[in-house]
Amino acid sequence: MADFLLSAFADEAAERLERQIEALKRNNIKRIEIRNVNGKCIIDCSKVELVAIKKQLDENGIMVSSIGSPIGKYNIEEPFDIHLERFQRAIETAKILKTKRIRMFSFFIPKGAEAEQYREEVLSRLEVFTTLAKQNGVVCCHENEKEIYGDVKKRVLELHENNSDLKGIFDPANYIQCKEDPKSIFADLKPYIDYIHIKDAIMEDGIVVPAGKGDGAIATILDSFYEQGKEKLLTVEPHLTVFSGLSNLQDEELKHKYTYQSQGEAFDVAVTALKDILDKRGYCYE
């Protein structure tokens, strides 16, 4: 049994599915958090397209760990009906791709507004999502993201304490970008966390860097997340700086040394950084 199961947002390596699969296989990763495929958001793909995607993944031994949907990543003041319809599409997508997880968010708060004034509306909408998900045998996994309602520990805890069916995704870099220390808040959030997005960042400016190179305390968090006898899911989300060509290097101000010449290179570096941490800590993974 592995200590950790590795997945990745392979759309950060390439747009076309075949190239995403190549990147996963090159890094010996057997799972994908599927988000965008062939230039289209996964939940906007037709049933025919989804069946073809599933077949292509199966033929290459790739499983879907989660649907990387954008559900809840829109303004709380937008009409709910349109987004509820999209959520139903996300559920059907999960069923076809044979995963029980749907990644989602808790709505952007209008600039200048107090998040707390939208508390009841946020909780109400999430209750609709999780109820519908439960009826269909899938789970909603909430990711902390800057500028949404559940962006900081206090409000993320509030979401989970008011909705027992809502699972959590812990993204260290997103907390850093909200000026919260991931290491100091992890213990309080751990009971609700289903899996972790492996993404690190620098507190000073919020720039994303390879795991272990920022202030995310990735190794410490993994030690805390580890549980003997259970296989814990980790999804690599590179978000690293990519320049389209060397010529850009002459014109761009480099704020740090972690910049890459291609999406594929950045993806490989992100995966290797996580594996280095796991290897040094003596964990087994697949």
Name its key features.
single chain; 286 residues; alpha/beta; six-stranded parallel beta sheet; two-stranded parallel sheet; 9 helices; 14 strands; 38% helix; 18% strand; globular
Structural write-up:
The strands form five sheets. Strands 1-12-9-8-7-6 form a six-stranded parallel beta sheet. It contains nine helices and 14 strands. The chain has 286 residues and is an alpha/beta fold. Helix 3 packs parallel to helix 4 and helix 7 runs parallel beside helix 8.
What is the mean pLDDT? 95
Let me know the largest β-sheet. Answer: 6 strands, parallel
Q: Which runs of at least 5 residues are low in confidence (pLDDT < 50)?
A: 245-253
Strand content: 15-25%
Structural class by helix and strand composition: alpha/beta
Helicity level:
25-40%
User: How are the strands of the largest sheet arranged?
Assistant: 1-12-9-8-7-6
**Overall geometric form:** globular
Ends distance: 9 Å
Q: H/E series, N to C? A: EHEEEHEHEHEHEHHEEEHEEEH
How big is the Rg?
18 Å
Number of helices: 9
Number of strands: 14
Short description:
The protein has 286 residues and is α/β, with parallel strands linked by helices. The chain is 38% helix and 18% strand.
Layout of helices and strands:
Elements: E1 4-8, H1 17-26, E2 31-34, E3 36-37, E4 40-41, H2 47-59, E5 63-67, H3 80-97, E6 101-104, H4 119-135, E7 139-143, H5 153-161, E8 166-170, H6 172-177, H7 182-189, E9 193-198, E10 200-201, E11 208-209, H8 218-225, E12 232-236, E13 241-242, E14 259-260, H9 263-281
Parallel strand pairs: 1-12, 2-5, 6-7, 7-8, 8-9, 9-12, 13-14
Antiparallel strand pairs: 3-4, 10-11
Helix pairs in contact: 3-4, 7-8
